[in-house]
Description:
- Helix 1 (63-85) runs antiparallel to helix 2 (91-119) and helix 7 (283-300) runs antiparallel to helix 8.
- The protein is built from nine helices and two strands, in the order ββααααααααα.
- With 363 residues, it is mainly alpha-helical.
- 64% of the residues lie in helices and 2% in strands.
- It has one domain (13-25, 50-359).
Amino acid sequence: MTGAGGSPRAEDEGGEPAQHGSELVPAPPPDVVATDGAGASTPVTAGPSTSLVSFTLEGRAAPALFVVGWAGTLIGGALLVVSLMAVGSVAAPWMALVGLVLLAGGLVGLAGSQATERARQPELPYRGPSPVLAFIAFVAVAILLQLLALAPLSALGLDPSSPLGTTVNLALQTLVYVGIVALLVVGPGALSWREMGVSRFGAAPARDLLLGAVVAVPVLIVTLVLGGLLSRFVEPSPSPLPAAGTVAGLALNLVSGAILAPVGEELFFRGFTTTAWARAVGAVPAIVRGAVLFALVHGLTISAATFSEGLQHAVFSFLALLPVGITLGWLFLTRRSLYASIGLHAAFNGIQLVLLAVATGLV
């Protein structure tokens, strides 16, 4: 396997060389200073607090965005709660839909407000929205789009839990991942696509994809062994993808698990989240934080018949996914390429799907 140094990276878009060494996590910019008439320099002090929990408009670059963000989040959340209390009434579904629209817009507004304020603070090593807040915004927007898109398709006969329904669902999620990163991270200038490991596809990215696929094999072995040990104490979690049933279903599951999920999740959890945290707190804490968030998200999305069963599934999924989450973050920061982590993620999921198909006699 190629070491951390690797071979020289190919040129990136625009003919500029790709980043090397510590450039992925640059040192914080120098303090901003002001010069008085005598030529003496003094640090520029910050004005009034512009954090999201500081309810003041003084000194804000985008006060309207801050107000709209909080108003949409609070009103939308309240409407969702009321709709749950009024389940069965005619107004409940419409109240829930309006609440979800307001909540999604409010959360995006809050993240945008945070990115706008941080963009004015050059002393910060990372000047973008909180990855956790951005993910919460992603969840709200993704649920909204799924309702708007899958409800009409379901009326036409599409089963959302089928392989085709799952593929449509993951395609929507991937679009939301890309949209959130483009709007809240790239748009305000917090990180560029290149800084998140995205470059024009060529020979070097192809090698990174292959390297990631090779690394996936030992990681999968470790995960299977760990899963076997964990299954002695907690109930194993079910596959997040539906049973294939047919060769066509297997093909759709491979599209979902080995293409759509790796692209969207790696862009968000490694390209954006790990890069942002690496700048803010350093590489090792960023890898750990990214792995924990990645594993936690997958554990919390598992459904079960009872709370006890769901808790066991969540614990199993969280612990089983930590090794691959840590390896994904390490490989991403080592190679400075999103293609490497996508290759690992795609092979990790794809190999399991093929092995399951072989074990069940599907292929």
